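Do me a favour: review this protein, sequence plus structure tokens, and tell me how the chain folds. Record follows.
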Amino acid sequence: MPVLCVPFLELKYGETLMRFDYVWLRDHCRSASCYNTKTNQRSLDTASVDLCIRPKTVRVDETTLFLTWPDGHVTRYGLEWLVKNSYEGQKQQVMHPRMLWNARIYQEAQVPSVECQSFLETNEGLREFLQNFLLYGIAFVENVPPTKEDTEILAERISLIRETIYGRMWHFTSDFSRGDTAYTKLALDRHTDTTYFQEPCGIQVLHCLRHEGTGGRTLLVDGFYAAEQVLQEAPDDFELLTKVPLKHEYIENVGGCHNHMIGVGPVLNTYPWNNELYLIRYNNYDRAVINTVPYDTVRRWYAAHRTLTTELRRPENELWVKLKPGKALFVDNWRILHGRESFTGYRQLCGCYLTRDDVLNTARFLGLQA
């Protein structure tokens, strides 16, 4: 039974014991005068709710909670809805179901690629692709015509393309036309991109259009898998990596390109109510001077960073793939670290960044949890 002698309502449904502030219960009323079901938007002016409000009466049956407020207004909540939307219920749920992986786990899963035609022309093909992408953080499309224009059509199937200082679609070789190591033939260690943006780009698309030479395999590492190992083995290190804000910086003065970008945030970013990791910001190339924490925290941060780096660099966590013309790769830049081995000869890639919100929006439209 609900308890009224305290400034909140306590209610048990199934195995979940829930507590609701009375202001919350008034604010979330779904009656016709408080909530517009056509637009799915709140109509009630939250600032008009008395912060000391309490219901006159409370009644609960097997499926529904009824509250009558001092002005006579009646609020009804389904108990299933309350469990789903209570803090206690949210603590038991994940926002984004995932399959964490190392190289063996991913290879044994035999995650299929999706054919370009199916991806572009059918919702079934698109849904299969997005399901793989959401679960594993990477997904491949096969038999894509090896042109920048066709890669752009592919990307626009699931999202708006995010235009950045690199333009809308990249089309690059090892000519050092930009002030970035990616525009060379050198090996690149594992990293996430655009850590120097306040909101790092959500998804990266890569398509190798041509390679006449050797080497150049792409390295992929599940940053969330590595972080989970840190959480299990060194929880204090994990917590510190979620608390310490760092600056990342990109300074460029090459040709006509003049940029100075700075992004700030911790290496690991979690939802506070369930400790679910949603973003890893890891790039040793672009990490700026550490001047955001006092001296007595710096050494502990370096130790925690070393713990995570050790996990990220374990050979068993490295998935190596050879990108070839016709095979496009989509990478969750908030989760998956990528790199490459050095290469010889002429190598031409194209790609772009996608807006994360639009990719997740497409997935939800197709009935996926995202």
Q: What stands out?
A: Residues 295-312 form the longest helix (18 residues).
